[in-house]
UniProtKB/TrEMBL annotation:
This is Peptide deformylase. It catalyses: N-terminal N-formyl-L-methionyl-[peptide] + H2O = N-terminal L-methionyl-[peptide] + formate. NCBIfam families: pept_deformyl, PRK00150.1-3. Fe cation binds at residues 90, 132, 136. Binds 1 Fe(2+) ion. The keyword Iron applies. The active site is at 133.
Amino acid sequence: MTVQPIRLFGDPVLRTAADEVTDFDKELRTLVADLAETMLAAPGSGLAAPQIGVGLRVFTYHIDDAQSGHLINPVLHFPSDEEQDGPEGCLSIPGLSWDCTRKANVVAHGQNMFGDPLTIEGAAILARCIQHETDHLDGVLFVDRLDAQTRKAAMKQIREASWAGLTPPTVKISPHATRGLAL
């Protein structure tokens, strides 16, 4: 397990839809462990693979020491149209949060790191976290879900943040055959 650097707002990987996981191997289990370690070190309630520069449909979550885990290839269903409004932040937009409307309840279907089917039912904060992290896998940031006036104020705060404009890390593709072990 290794704590990985978290990509910040403006990094193109955060706006790119992640690929479905098809190989449930040791590499994937290492990714899940790295995500969990990085999320807890940050600290955060959730972390998606694109936030550490990996374009796969994987996220981890940790809510108040009561609920934690991971989900791979999530598909969300909403049992009702009931909504919740409340503060939301993001490890890729550090130190800032705004009220964001989300569905109050969610049922997420996917797989665990071994490829076994997994269903997570969430309400309140867990529902918000699952929706937020699944958005990351689709290249959507929570600021995209804010009303126009709040989004405008959020973008101003982001531009003024001390971390704004920091150069994202350069990713180099290996010219050698990697047999699926790296980019």
